[in-house]
């Protein structure tokens, strides 16, 4: 249901009310259910809201892929041994997923302007954690 609500929000060109979201779901969900889902998404930082009169206008921060990434980060943050979790995750990737991950990491390295030249990114990341 969260993915459905995010997809509807993602189709909006401006912040929208919960009733707008409900209408685009063809009445599949009750208004109170839409509000509950939006509130949960707010807690997951997948949406933002701004007050408009007595109600709120909602805006997506993350799409379905972003929501999944938020869940993955939250699960990782809950574990004591991040290195072991990441190692296990990477070792279970398919060859295609591994190539995609390597490509994304290479692109991130190439565009990372926050790390000084000659600084080891992994060491900098460990200092922040």
**What is the helix/strand order?**
HHHEEHHHH
Number of strands: 2
Structural class: mainly alpha
Query: What portion of residues belong to β-strands?
Result: 5-15%
Biggest sheet record: 2 strands, antiparallel
Which runs of at least 5 residues are low in confidence (pLDDT < 50)?
119-129
Provide a short characterization of the protein structure.
The protein is mainly α and 129 residues long. The chain is 61% helix and 9% strand.
Give structural notes:
With 129 residues, this protein is mainly alpha-helical. 61% of the residues lie in helices and 9% in strands. The chain has helices at residues 2-11, 18-24, 31-43, 64-77, 82-91, 95-111, 121-128; strands spanning 47-52, 55-60. A two-stranded antiparallel sheet has the order 1-2. Helix 2 crosses helix 3 (31-43). Mean pLDDT is 84; it is low at 119-129.
Pick out its properties:
61% helix, mainly alpha, 2 strands, two-stranded antiparallel sheet, single chain, 7 helices, 129 residues
Q: How do the strands and helices of this protein lay out in sequence?
A:
Layout: H1 2-11, H2 18-24, H3 31-43, E1 47-52, E2 55-60, H4 64-77, H5 82-91, H6 95-111, H7 121-128
Antiparallel strand pairs: 1-2
Helix pairs in contact: 2-3
